Amino acid sequence: MVDSVIQLKCSYNNYPWGKKGNHSAAARYCSKTPGTDFNIEDDAEYAEMWMGDYPSTPSYVLSTGQPLENVLKANGELLLGSNVLKKFGTNLPFLPKILSMAKALPLQLHPNKDLVSQLHKKDPSKFSDPNHKPEIAVALSKFEAFAGFKPFDSIAALFSLPPLRQYYPTKTLTESRLKQLCTQLLQLDEASAQAIQDSLSQVSRDLYGEQAYILDLLPRIQEQYGSADNGTLIALLCMNYLVLSPGEAL
User: In 97, 186, 212, 221, which residue has its Cα 20 to 30 A from 78's Cα atom?
Assistant: First the structure.
């Protein structure tokens, strides 16, 4: 009979935005699991530690080496309970992760449940998971994030600045117009994207008002992704910028 509390050997991801070596909390936590042969490499990026049954980065029962997914399938009633089994089956409906980020993550778009189910059926090779991905982030240290779209008036104020007026000739912003704006920015060629960023860096801090933080963030992101990255424009101009202290969440 399986124990109701299971110690896991967890897996990690080496995404290029992860911190290197012992600077990564994800790597340190993986290495602290007793009885494993995990060794931290100083020059390797360790972005995430995953704790769950997701097929691409699974966890294993430490004492037996069995995949957690197999143990859950064989002991679903004991480990998950009847209510969870009825709604989700034996797959865990959540995936805890520890992230260690050395730089800003690429933009991520998570479709809702209905849309992602349709996309998965249409192209499972590209959309491997039929589930949506609502997320909760809890800061373990100071944590900066771009999350969700800014209020329309904040976005409109930025697009009234000289470098951006040509992309937004009206002062009325709607959801459909925001979609058009984002599409325009993402489809800019490198020369145009760089020209906008260069011009934004020359705008007076006073003209930015409460969004003057953009002048501080722009060179930081350019150092990571260059000065012609379209995602930089989406993040700075359209998304909320948040700073969380340890223990705060979004």
Answer: 97
